[in-house]
C-alpha cells in the first residue's frame, strides 16, 4: 500500500520548494550583479589611477615651469590675462 500526502501537505511542500527555488535564483542573480559591479568598479579604479598619474605629470610640469619663471623673474604673482608680474 502506497502512502500519499494530503492535499494540504502537498501544497505546503510545493510552496516550500517554490520559495527555495526562488531564493536560489535571487542569490544567483545577485552574484551575477555583484560580479558585474566588481568589474565596473575595477575599471573605474584603473581609470582613476590613470587620471592620478596624469595629474602627477601635469603637476610636475607646472612646478618645473614655476621654478623656471621664479629663476627668471623672481617671486610674484602673474596676471594671466596680461602676463604682467606683480
Key words describing this protein structure:
86 residues, mainly alpha, 1 helix, 78% helix, 0% strand
Description:
The protein is built from 1 helix and no strands. It has 86 residues and is mainly α. It is rod-shaped. The N and C termini lie far apart (107 Å). The model has no long low-confidence stretch (mean pLDDT 96).
List the helices and strands and how they pair.
Blueprint: H1 7-73
User: What is the number of helical segments per DSSP (H or I, 4+ residues)?
Assistant: 1
Order of helices and strands: H
Query: Helix amount, in percent?
Result: over 70%
Cα gyration radius (Å): 34 Å
The low-pLDDT segments are: none
Structural class of the secondary elements?
mainly alpha
Compact overview of the structure:
With 86 residues, the chain is an all-alpha fold.
Amino acid at each position: 500500500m502506497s502512502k500519499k500526502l494530503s492535499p494540504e501537505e502537498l501544497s505546503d511542500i510545493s510552496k516550500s520548494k517554490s520559495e527555495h527555488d526562488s531564493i536560489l535564483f535571487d542569490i544567483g542573480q545577485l552574484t551575477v550583479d555583484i560580479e558585474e559591479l566588481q568589474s565596473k568598479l575595477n575599471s573605474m579604479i584603473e581609470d582613476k589611477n590613470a587620471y592620478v598619474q596624469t595629474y602627477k605629470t601635469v603637476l610636475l610640469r607646472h612646478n618645473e615651469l614655476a621654478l623656471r619663471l621664479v629663476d627668471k623673474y623672481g617671486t610674484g604673482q602673474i596676471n594671466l590675462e596680461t602676463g604682467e608680474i606683480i
